[in-house]
Write a structure and sequence with these properties.
By secondary structure, this protein is an alpha+beta fold. The chain has helices at about 40-45, 50-65, 75-85, 135-165, and strands at about 5, 20-30, 95-100, 100-110, 110-120, 125-135. The protein has a six-stranded antiparallel beta sheet. About 25% of the residues are buried.
Length: about 170
Amino acid sequence: MKIRKSPLPAGSAVSQYPDIDYSDCFRAALPGPEPIRPEKLMAAFWTTMPGWLTLLFKIRNLLVKPFGLKTGADGNREKLKEALETGHDYGFMSVVGNTDNEMVISLEDKHLAAFFSVYIEDRTVYLTTLVRYHNKLGRIYFALIRPFHTIVVKSLFRQVVRQQGF
């Protein structure tokens, strides 16, 4: 499966979000004829955790906790999966958009707001990340994790499609 960098899809709700400081979008063609719901992909994306990524998040959580950034460390993956698959908020995540072809969630704290979209159009899935900084600490934090962001998103994208059999 080829995962490519992409412009934000014009039909996606997130293409209209104002005041965004950072955005990226990746797309891939999905194999097979079966329809796929964006909620199912979003849930799989947030609950698929290879060992190396679990370790990376543990390190991240230890480093950012003193600065008041939310860690999501108290979350339950099964409850998160169920909430996302049914279009409901869970813990630090809020569902801010949910249509037949797109789900958008938001993670927000006092330093930044991040929006994630799974948008499906013609058997192509688009994963979009948008970030809005609230202050200087948000800008610094995202500058530190940004080099890892693309690696994590592309790796998870591949793994989700492989594991879920899409």
